[in-house]
Amino acid sequence: MLKFTKKKIIVGGCSFTDYAMPEKAQPNPMSFKMWPAYIEGYNVINTARCGSGNRKILSNVIEEVLKHDAKDIAYVIVAWTEWTRQDILTDNSHFTDSPWRTVIPKIDDEKDKLVKDIPHNETFVNEWYKSIQSKFPKDKDIQNDTLQMMYLLQCFCKEQGINFLQFQMLPPYNKFRKEDQSLDEDISFKIEFSKRKQRELDFMKNPISLLLDESKFLGFPIWRGLGGYSMYQLLVMKYGHMDYRINGIDAHPNEDAQRFIAEVVRKNLDL
113 near 131, Cβ under 8 Å? Predict the structure, then answer.
């Protein structure tokens, strides 16, 4: 009797994709499936982890792909997170069991803070964050680095003979940076608009953007001003700024929104 094995779909992403995210929902843990689990008929392997930056996402996906025979993989799907998240390899003895640390720029009332999950050695990590705070890369360099990762994923999958789809899950940049803080609302809007236009211009000028396969990139060219979109923008368009969320505290997609993401992705898979 012939035995059939389901082909695999390997997925990468951040907390908007991580299967364990509902257990970490605020203020109370919840139980529902994340969007990859709604892609039926395949053995879905979800490598997404909460708080990941794009370098960690790419690394997790490539490591997982290399564990399997390429002919057994139907698809690789990567949902990219904010470009401003910076993944750094570290001596994990000061952190947790993972060698990756993700630095996320956040804003409080006075200055940028670099925020991440609470580590084991808090004193060491506070000093470590402080030491790199002034070395955070510029927007143009962040964009170039991210496009390189997207192109690397494309080249890797094509070299392996594996079908793939990538898309931008979250908006590429945090809305406001420290220099915009405490400014008049109209002035802040003008600064943000100017920055977005510059980022769009940098994207168009970057030669790597011309190398990305648009047929394998949902929402390309990503930027709304260029005719692209992120999955987050689709969620807001369908549900509004609040109704896609788990609740007023937790901004991760709820169960209905997860089903919607799965539907959008599934329609763009060549299966």
Answer: no
